[in-house]
Amino acid sequence: MNTLEAPSFRRGGRMNALETTGLGMRHRRTWALRDCSVAVPAGRVAALVGPNGAGKTTLLRLAVGLLTPTAGQVRVFGRPARESGERMAFVAQNKPLYTGFRVSEMLRFGRGLNPRWDDAAARRRLTELGIPLDRRVGRLSGGQRTQVALTVALAKRPDLLVLDEPLADLDPLARDDVTRGLMGAVAETGLTVLLSSHVVSELEGVCDWLVVVNGGRVQVSGDIDDLTARHSLLTGPAETADALAARLPVVSRSGAGRQATLLVRDDAPPPDPRWSARPVTLEEMVLAYLRAPDAAALPRPALSPVH
Amino acid sequence: MFWLTWRQHRAQILVTGGLLLALGLLMLVSALRATAYLAEYAPPGCPGPAVSCSAVNHVVYTDHYRPVFFVFGLLPIFGAALIGVFWGAPLLAAEFERGTNALAWTQAVPIRRWLTVKFGMLGALVAGAALALSAMVSTWRNVFSGVTGDVTMEPGNFTITGIVPAAWWLFAFAVGAAAGTVTRRTLAAMAVTVAVICLALPAVFFSRSSYAEPARVVTADRSSVAHGGGTLVRESWVDPSGRELTAPPPPPCPLPAGVDARSDRAQLLGEECLVGSGYRHAVYYHPVDRFWRFQWTETAILLAGALAFGALAVLRTLRRRG
């Protein structure tokens, strides 16, 4: 795949919410992100996955205009990221809020700085969550803090919501609350979400678009259902594995003893009857790519939704 | 944005306002007490330069003027340092340190407007507070003008009266803000701010006398120049032919027996002898009527510095906002 290939600006008539072209970010001598061209179509809930230090945070901070790219560009609904503050909301990893403020003052902050602010919805959301408006932000629990940060982001009525590790540091109950709140907002407004995570299991059923970054490069980008349908897990005798692997696009191989397992980017049934195939899960697929940093599955015409 | 600025910085604003109020009350009480004392005990025509006034001058100076002035004597250094440390340093450093830059600068309000409102509003408050202090000090000082004579050009006074305090405080504020963009940590920014101000203060104090070519007067009685106020730059001797000497000439008269040549008395006798032999003092000084010219010069220098540091803070923030 040609990683330099720019994603098309519109695909199937729908505008991309976020689009990066040849994006690169260098900190002194090392590239935190390189040749990154990804697109997130409008209306998607996209997961940005990668190991720690893969460049996820850098990509998100570039997307919201907090960082200035060393190379390439970022467009949000077709316009430069730094001119899109009104259409975009961002919640950084540590859920920054002014700890000395009361919750109601955080809402006043949002109201003062955003013309599209929906105060009634924000108050309703916090009341439903049982978060007292007169509580100081510094005294909130981790889950409540995330919910307040998410409320401030959602009340901006953004078209693109960018979340950096929104579920990290949360207990399972708070994770579920946050995920459900997010899904509710998506269903209600149809906004596009881009969220990063290094825990793949918590993304199943939440996200429908996947971007994998690894070692500062984009490895996978596309619709999750498409991607999982186009990959399969083959199991068969180890002595024939080499011959099979030579004919198929293998992403990763594993197995011990006489059994070999190949994860291949191919949905056709295996040519050798001694081999059996089964569909991959999202987690298996992501792990296979993370183990094989040189493999890539990037958008190509066949992966495009509608033509 | 205005509410946000007030909300984020109200602690500094209220504490600064409270301190100004306390200083104002201190000066008001001091001025009232001094006025009452003078009304009761001052002989007619006093306070003033007349010899008959010296007793009352001395009492008012030591009991009423000096204790309060002692507080202000520290203000040129502490006032600017406090503004730089508590107003300037946290302005950007705290946002970076707590990660709230990712919150503040991803809202619909563009970062340029955020910076404009913060710098504009806080800068105006800093300048306003400095001018209020300066006005209070000047008013208080007027009560004592008969006692102390005109001391407006004296370094301690010059720094806390007129418009120079506003320039100093704005300079410190900008230094603090710029330090915050360099260190991105509040405490480190505070330390850097104090260091820069500690370097800037003596640099400005010692360059003050070169704001203008000093006036030169040749006189037999050098105290006449000192009494008119103003600041002394340097002195030298002029020989009877009118030539200025680089080194002090040896006194032509012998010292009376029993006087140590190293003593002050010997020095005084030597000078009297030189004057008696036709030598004169050449005194280089800045007269008090240069007060405003010097005020504007120092203000221009400091505001240029404030603008440079302010621009540094803004550019660094725009370039590395993440």
TrEMBL record, chain A:
Classification via PROSITE patterns: ABC_TRANSPORTER_2 (PS50893)
Q: Listed GO molecular functions? A: ATP binding
Name the keywords, alphabetized: ATP-binding, Nucleotide-binding, Transport
List residues traversing the bilayer: none
**Domain ABC transporter, first and last residues per copy:** 18-240
Any single Pfam family the record assigns to this protein: ABC_tran
Among SUPFAM superfamilies, the record links this protein to: P-loop containing nucleoside triphosphate hydrolases
Record carries keyword Ion transport: no
Please tell me whether the keyword Glycosyltransferase is annotated for this protein.
no
What InterPro entries would the database entry show?
AAA+_ATPase (IPR003593), ABC_transporter-like_ATP-bd (IPR003439), ABC_Transporter_VariousFunc (IPR051782), P-loop_NTPase (IPR027417)
What protein am I looking at?
A: ABC transporter ATP-binding protein
What organism, scientifically named, is this protein from? Streptosporangium pseudovulgare
UniProtKB/TrEMBL annotation, chain B:
Which keywords does this chain's UniProt record carry? Membrane, Transmembrane, Transmembrane helix
Record-annotated membrane-spanning stretches: 68-94, 115-138, 158-180, 187-206, 300-318
Q: What is this protein called?
A: Transporter
